[in-house]
Amino acid sequence: MTSIIIDINCLIVDIPTIRPHKMSVATMGSQSMVIVRVKSSDDVEGIGEATTIAGLNYGGESPESIKTNIETYFRPLLVGQPANQIAALRRLIAKNIKDNHFARSAVETALYDARAKRLGVSVADLFGGRIHDAISVAWTLASGETAVDVAEAQKMLDLRRHNIFKLKIGRRAPEEDLRYIESIRKAVGDDISLRVDLNQGWSETQAVRYLQPLADLGVALVEQPIHFKNLDGMARLTALGRVPIMADESLRGPQDGFALASKHCANVFAIKIEQAGGLQPARDLMAIAEAADISLYGGTMLEGSVSTVAAAHLFSTMPHLEWGTEMFGPLLLTDDILTEPLDYSDFTLKLPAGPGLGVTLDDDKLAFYARNH
Ligand code: MUC
Ligand code: MG
């Protein structure tokens, strides 16, 4: 029997972070998740999620715009359509709705979740099946206080939760950032991989000046040091060969991936399902990276559990995720909206068993944290 989409609902859920998360683009004290539920005639529900970073601080979509656009534009387009025809639905969306990659990702995730549940398989199975049962997960140090970050790194190592750290820099003067990185390096020792994310915080001149000092401190990877549109600059920084350069904000889908790969603008791609526009576009982006011998990293928009596990399903199907992932989003929040939280242990995130995404929403928690206006 053909299952038909009968409704699409969105809820904004606000959950405080465990501490202020300070980046060059914004300081976050809470995360707002747009939870999308796609209902179909066979009673199978698919769920998806979209998050942004501090409203509009990171990009052109906000939780409010995502909810409004899904309800106003995606919903009437998709209601009445066959729920299992995901490729056809993607084409319909692409024809009628431009941009809005985060909203697309949430809707597409819900479609895949429902499709997989109907088949009794996991979302990873729809992408060829998992190769890995667990994926490595880095933690981001971004309290803004060196002593707090040192203690936090130590705690993560002691708990065996994370042994790779990303440091958010570019908010302060570069010399101050160097002193900060040096303190973290001294505390964790030389064997721990430290990476930095500028979130476009430097000019190209600053990047040329400071890449070598970063390399001298053993920084393994420098993420999006300069403006996302300065692709020639990214190519020049990559060609310097001082530290591997990772593209993040510059990668807004497969076409961007092709442009970056053709111009050698990065050594590594941070793959984010939201930024790519969904699971399938993210998979397409990874194929471009693989073909160009660009290494892969699983990135996050500080997503909650639903989008985190969706991305984890996709990443679990990749033979080589050389730089691991940072799918720690749920751990940055004071509470979770799943009946059963995700399993983070042994420096990894374990892929859940069970059909679809393998997770269930806790309706009481949703009702408690849902925004009422
Ligand atoms: C980003 O720019 O990569 C990922 C980890 C984190 O702390 O911020 C995000 C966004
Ligand atoms: Mg980044």
UniProtKB/TrEMBL annotation:
<dbReference type="InterPro" id="IPR013341">
    <property type="entry name" value="Mandelate_racemase_N_dom"/>
</dbReference>
<dbReference type="InterPro" id="IPR029017">
    <property type="entry name" value="Enolase-like_N"/>
</dbReference>
<dbReference type="InterPro" id="IPR018110">
    <property type="entry name" value="Mandel_Rmase/mucon_lact_enz_CS"/>
</dbReference>
<keyword id="KW-0479">Metal-binding</keyword>
<dbReference type="GO" id="GO:0030145">
    <property type="term" value="F:manganese ion binding"/>
</dbReference>
<dbReference type="Pfam" id="PF02746">
    <property type="entry name" value="MR_MLE_N"/>
</dbReference>
<dbReference type="GO" id="GO:0018849">
    <property type="term" value="F:muconate cycloisomerase activity"/>
</dbReference>
<comment type="pathway">
    <text>Aromatic compound metabolism.</text>
</comment>
<feature type="active site" description="Proton acceptor">
    <location>
        <position position="168"/>
    </location>
</feature>
<dbReference type="GO" id="GO:0016854">
    <property type="term" value="F:racemase and epimerase activity"/>
</dbReference>
<dbReference type="InterPro" id="IPR036849">
    <property type="entry name" value="Enolase-like_C_sf"/>
</dbReference>
<keyword id="KW-0058">Aromatic hydrocarbons catabolism</keyword>
<dbReference type="GO" id="GO:0018850">
    <property type="term" value="F:chloromuconate cycloisomerase activity"/>
</dbReference>
<protein>
    <submittedName>
        <fullName>Muconate cycloisomerase</fullName>
    </submittedName>
</protein>
<dbReference type="InterPro" id="IPR013342">
    <property type="entry name" value="Mandelate_racemase_C"/>
</dbReference>
<keyword id="KW-0464">Manganese</keyword>
<keyword id="KW-0413">Isomerase</keyword>
<dbReference type="GO" id="GO:0009063">
    <property type="term" value="P:amino acid catabolic process"/>
</dbReference>
<feature type="active site" description="Proton donor">
    <location>
        <position position="326"/>
    </location>
</feature>
<dbReference type="GO" id="GO:0006518">
    <property type="term" value="P:peptide metabolic process"/>
</dbReference>
<feature type="domain" description="Mandelate racemase/muconate lactonizing enzyme C-terminal">
    <location>
        <begin position="147"/>
        <end position="244"/>
    </location>
</feature>
<comment type="similarity">
    <text>Belongs to the mandelate racemase/muconate lactonizing enzyme family.</text>
</comment>
<dbReference type="InterPro" id="IPR029065">
    <property type="entry name" value="Enolase_C-like"/>
</dbReference>
<dbReference type="Pfam" id="PF13378">
    <property type="entry name" value="MR_MLE_C"/>
</dbReference>
<dbReference type="InterPro" id="IPR013370">
    <property type="entry name" value="Chloromuconate_cycloisomerase"/>
</dbReference>
